[in-house]
Automatic annotation (TrEMBL):
PANTHER family: GLYCEROL KINASE, SUGAR KINASE. It comes from the Bacteria. Residues 1-62 form the Carbohydrate kinase FGGY N-terminal domain. The lineage of its organism: Bacteria, Bacillati, Bacillota, Tissierellia, Tissierellales. The keyword Nucleotide-binding applies. This is Putative glycerol kinase. Residues 72-258 form the Carbohydrate kinase FGGY C-terminal domain. It holds the Pfam family FGGY_C.
Amino acid sequence: MLYNIYDLKWDDEILEKLDIPKSILPEVKDTIDDYGFVDEKILGAKLPIHSLVGDQQSSLFGQACFIEGDCKNTYGTSNVPLVYIGEKTIKSDKGLLTLAWSFDNKPYYAVGASILTTGEVMKWLKDKIKLYDDNDKMTEEVKSLEDSNGVFFVPAFQGLGAPHWDMYARGMIIGLSSGVERKHIIKAGLDSIAYQTEDLLDQIEKETGIKVSNMKVDGGASNNDYLMQFQSNLSDLPIKRPLDTETTSLGVAYLAGLGAGVWENKEVIKDLWKSAKEFTPDRNKEKVKESYEDWKRAVEYSKGWMKK
């Protein structure tokens, strides 16, 4: 937060306000550079360190998102969608701009941020309130439903992250009627993962003017075919799940390999990326849009709950 990603230097104004001397801060290097060596005692060899990168940026690289509008989304306890936008910057009202990587002192940018509670909601439904006990059976049960019977689950357990940034929001299940069954609540929880992702994608498109072209997915919940199909329908995008979903580890390995000369350039990396399964929209757009509008109403009701 102290680094100015526009000017590529430590931010003098912030340092002054926080009374942090610049002299104690490290030199900032490119994503691929000489970072020293691994201690020989650790791995038995003095191995060079060729790259240093954040986890989500590494995932973006591991998913070979090198063209403007390419998107990756990590489905974990939280979700972190990032959209690659290349060399240009934007002024983001929601704090979504981030540095993707830099090569030869040339920065490349992405837009996105963390959605606080996504996969965690399913763990809560399973382990805390015992609505199901088997993931495969749960998915088949949810797939048998036409809809969630009017139920929406806003899992703001710690507030709402991107793009809402409301720490006073709290979780809410709304739309309950006498016809609602256990499986409708489960479906609403699973669907909330996709709805929250769409909230952020919608904000990204508004701020950048860039239409997301496709979404490459990774993380544990990306293995749920129902969720990936629902996300494809909701976002009206092809969803691509790679053969290797450990893309964070893969990304930094690619970057280090480029630094070591194992691969020549990013085009070679792009050719290494392989799809295991692709999901394309298969539902009526108007019906999907209607349910999304109801979701947005539910989110608004959840906001500010903890304010006194």
